[in-house]
Amino acid sequence: MPNFQNTTSTSIIFLLTGVPGLEAFHTWISIPFCFLYITALSGNSLILFAIVTQPSLHEPMYYFLSMLSTTDLGLSISTLVTMLGIFWFNAREISFNACLSQMFFIKLFTVMESSVLLAMAFDRFVAISNPLRYATILTDSRIAQIGVTIVIRGTLMLTPMVALLKRLSFCRSHVLHHSYCFHPDVMKLSCTDTRINNAVGLTAMISTVGVDSILILLSYILIIKTVLSIASPEERKKAFSTCISHIGAVAIFYFPLISLSFVHRFGKRAPAYVHTMIANTYLLIPPVMNPIIYSVKTKQIRRAVIKILYSKDM
């Protein structure tokens, strides 16, 4: 019985997993992941720098974009050390508290990204449906309040979910099936009843990412309704074109998330490396693709980025 109690203490060590069955190729597998991390970190940092330094980008739409880049940076950094540590040094061990911390920040930045995408959808709705009052509705102070609310909301919703893991006992294998701490992964190793944890975790995700997705969809229904009421085809096209980048960001956030959920629930017969690769790309695709989408599709961002890169070359 004393040994059983020790498994609930902070001295417990989990073992992370790289790509099951392909351990001999971890060094080679790390090359594309390194490229993805470099792209994510440099791309989002560049967009943040452009928005901060270019006065022409001091507008609500770009403030929200800076929030998106910040969450993408946080999401990338949250998994960087453990993922590359496994691929390069086979450093698989992670303490219980470190695991909880990583899990919390991964979930927090995921929920924050969902919330930012919702705020951006609201921004596009106001800009299209009520352009004359756009600047008075989305003032700098209101945008700051939205940003603070996003952080507080994520923290309040996720703290109980992560804190409740401390009540669990782990008397089975301590081997996790991902290269980072994943909430369902940790619960599977417990020999304690996890129904409360499952309920709290499901409630947290439904009330954040689930609700956000419904509200984003509702926003676009209203946007489409407003755009179709515009008489001029030119103006309709121009109005809808301002949403293209945001639609791309929403798609690359929700599609991998949905794919991961489906694989975990219905793909139990799939090879273990399929689960791992989808789980890794689910966290990396949005941070990598968002800067590319906004740089390609948003003229002002593209100009600002080119201006910064050109001035550095000079």
Automatic annotation (TrEMBL):
Topology term for the membrane: Multi-pass membrane protein
GO molecular function, one term: G protein-coupled receptor activity
Subcellular location: Cell membrane; Membrane
Biological classification of the source: Eukaryota, Metazoa, Chordata, Craniata, Vertebrata
Transmembrane segments: 29-52, 73-91, 103-122, 143-165, 199-223, 244-266, 272-293
SUPFAM superfamilies to which the protein is assigned, alphabetical: Family A G protein-coupled receptor-like
Protein name: Olfactory receptor
Record carries keyword tRNA processing: no
The entry's keywords: Cell membrane, G-protein coupled receptor, Membrane, Olfaction, Receptor, Sensory transduction, Transducer, Transmembrane, Transmembrane helix
Occurrences of domain G-protein coupled receptors family 1 profile (ranges): 43-294
A single Gene Ontology CC term: plasma membrane
One Pfam short name: 7tm_4
Biological function: Putative odorant or sperm cell receptor.
Family from the record: Belongs to the G-protein coupled receptor 1 family.
Gene3D superfamilies membership: Rhodopsin 7-helix transmembrane proteins
Source organism (scientific name): Canis lupus familiaris (Dog)
Primary gene name: OR51F23
GO annotation terms (biological process): cellular response to lipid
